[in-house]
């Protein structure tokens, strides 16, 4: 195998690992968003875990968190949780940053 093939293989492996870590961080952030909102809605632990799973599933529709926002905003409004779209975006960014940090630490 040539040096070029080795570099290409290493690049492909790193890309695959980065994508896996990104997927895990997104899923973790979505789960935490779901649990945070479920807590605000007064759900039981079982209901909260089911809701968090639904939030994770909502994130599989498209890149980014707009699909999650579209999924949770009706619940936020229905339960008068006082979380605006900007508030959602800020909380999601916070949870995603935290999840990325944790995933990187776990992978090291």
Describe this structure in words.
The chain has 108 residues and is an all-alpha fold. The chain has a single domain, classed as Domain of unknown function DUF1476 (Major Prion Protein), CATH 1.10.790.20. 82% of the residues lie in helices and 0% in strands. The protein has 4 helices and no strands. The protein is elongated. The two termini are 28 Å apart. The model has no long low-confidence stretch (mean pLDDT 88).
The residue-averaged pLDDT reads 88
Number of domains: 1
The total strand number stands at 0
CATH superfamily: Domain of unknown function DUF1476
Q: What proportion of the residues form beta strands (DSSP E)?
A: under 5%
Instruction: Give helix % range.
Output: over 70%
Show unreliable segments.
none
Number of helices: 4
**Class per helix and strand makeup:** mainly alpha
Task: Tell me, briefly, the overall form.
Answer: elongated
Look at the structure and give the CATH class.
Mainly Alpha
Give the SSE layout.
Layout: H1 3-41, H2 45-58, H3 66-78, H4 85-107
Produce a short descriptive summary.
The protein is mainly α. The chain contains 4 helices and no strands. The mean pLDDT is 88.
Could you name the key traits of this structure?
about 110 residues; mainly alpha; Major Prion Protein; 4 helices
């Amino acid at each position: 195998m040539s040096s070029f093939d080795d570099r290409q293989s290493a690049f492909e492996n790193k890309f695959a690992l980065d994508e896996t870590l990104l997927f895990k961080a997104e899923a973790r952030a979505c789960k935490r968003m779901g649990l945070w909102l479920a807590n605000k809605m007064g759900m039981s632990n079982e209901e909260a875990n089911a809701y968090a799973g639904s939030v994770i599933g909502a994130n599989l529709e498209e890149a980014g968190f707009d699909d999650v926002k579209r999924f949770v905003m009706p619940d936020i409004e229905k339960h008068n949780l006082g979380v605006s779209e900007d508030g959602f975006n800020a909380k999601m960014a916070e949870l995603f940053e935290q999840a990325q940090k944790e995933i990187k630490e776990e992978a090291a």
